[in-house]
Amino acid sequence: MQARKINAGIYWVGAVDWDRRLFDALIPLPDGTSYNAYLIQGSEKTALIDTVDPAMAHMLLDRLHQLGTEHIDYVIANHAEQDHAGALPQIINRYPEVQVVCTSKCKDMLVDLRLAPPDRFLTVNDGATLSLGDRTLEFIHAPWVHWPETMLTYLREDKILFSCDLFGSHLATTGLYVTDEGQVYEAAKRYYAEIMMPFRKIIQKNLQKIQEHDISLIAPSHGPMYERPEFILAAYRDWVLGDPKNSVVLPFISMHGTTLKMVNYLVDVLTEKGVTVQQFNLAVTDIGKLAMALVDAATIVIGSPTVLTGAHPNVVYAAYLANALRPKLKFASIIGSYGWGGKMVEQIAGLIPNLKVELLNPVVCQGFPGKSDFDALDKLAGSIADKHKEHNLFGIRENKND
Ligand SMILES: Cc1cc2nc3c(=O)[nH]c(=O)nc-3n(C[C@H](O)[C@H](O)[C@H](O)COP(=O)(O)O)c2cc1C
Ligand SMILES: [Fe+2]
Ligand SMILES: [Fe+2]
């Protein structure tokens, strides 16, 4: 793929990673991803915004070569993480005159990561500007989105926000701009769930700061650019600030079908009561889908058999992940089964202190569930539906089921 023109003197020079199937060795990428870098040729100075994953450094260098780029004054490092800063050594090697522009925290991290020598930097404060002649870059510090050193870069004259990871989506595409908003919504939500959700409170403040700028294009560092910034800004407002939805996320494992029987029963009763459920059999599920469901859910019910006195290892993993992602859940419960005894419930409950949820009575049965167990599941479904109603999470249609 060639360098792609955005405006006069502004080019996309990134890399599309069609084959990548796992991000952070954790989240599946069904549609690949991209690492976007942008070249801005001002009347006096030239700046490169971010680089690419080191495995694709040659693509960045090829595109710069193809544009006849003999000199780069500044490389703006919005973020120190390797998928954007990892090709700095190659850029510094090819363009020895370049200065790395970043926050002072980012400088420390890039030096620690051995991606740039300490004498190469120009550190910038929040709100600082850098003139390229006829164009001006403004730096917006955004610490903890999602590392402590991050910033965004705003190109004033063209009203382009280079938002780095914020608003990114995991999507490999030849399209420079979003065309199918539904597809990008999914890919951006997957991205948000894993990377941004734990920092919801901080992102809230950053959204306010960003909205003080007149933005006509958002150019993130993953996925296509947003010509209609309001699309992704509205999605983020909903994910970050919106009330949770009338929905239960139900990750579970079942070895012999016992916990599964309980899960199926509970899902049926909840559905009858007008509560949406997303169930995830952790033996087969895409963990990214589970993370996405956690963005909106009001309740999590975790289902596990008892295995070697505790929860099934896959359930421990999912509970640990949910706890780390800090979604806006309000309620939780645990269901499952045991043969002779153990501490499955206590163990799972102990894994989710960050969730700050009200724990609804767990339902645990010995052997295969019988009448009293189904009655207990009825009660649990009833209290979940009641809690969702109390919090006004039911829509008009669900209320009709009363
Ligand atoms: C590998 C293995 C280890 C188990 N360890 C325990 C245990 O420590 N304590 C216990 O009460 N039951 C234990 N069980 C029994 C299961 O918890 C019980 O059969 C349960 O009903 C299985 O639920 P499932 O059909 O949803 O997998 C174990 C079962 C298996 C297969
Ligand atoms: Fe990142
Ligand atoms: Fe990234």
List its traits.
13 helices, binds flavin mononucleotide, 402 residues, 35% helix, seven-stranded mixed sheet, 23 strands, binds fe (ii) ion, single chain, alpha/beta
- Which range does the strand content fall in? 15-25%
Distance N terminus to C terminus? 56 Å
Sketch the major β-sheet.
7 strands, mixed
Low-confidence stretches are none
Helix percent band: 25-40%
Q: Can you list the ligands bound to this structure?
A: flavin mononucleotide, fe (ii) ion
- Give Rg in angstroms: 24 Å
Q: Roughly what is the average pLDDT, rounded to an integer?
A: 96
Would you count the extended β strands for me? Answer: 23
How many H/I helices? 13
What is the spatial order of strands in the main beta sheet?
Answer: 1-2-7-8-9-10-11
Structural class: alpha/beta
Structure explained in plain terms:
By secondary structure, this protein is α/β, with parallel strands linked by helices. 35% of the residues lie in helices and 25% in strands. The chain contains 13 helices and 23 strands. It has helices spanning 57-66, 82-85, 88-94, 104-112, 181-196, 200-211, 229-241, 258-272, 287-296, 313-325, 344-350, 371-390, 396-399; strands at 4-7, 10-12, 15-17, 22-23, 27-28, 33-35, 38-41, 46-49, 74-76, 99-102, 121-123, 129-131, 136-141, 151-155, 160-164, 217-220, 245-252, 276-281, 297-307, 310-311, 331-338, 358-359, 363-366. Strands 1-2-7-8-9-10-11 form a 7-stranded mixed β-sheet. Helix 1 links the parallel strand 8 (46-49) and strand 9 (74-76). It is elongated. One fe (ii) ion (FE2) is lined by residues 79, 81, 146, 165.
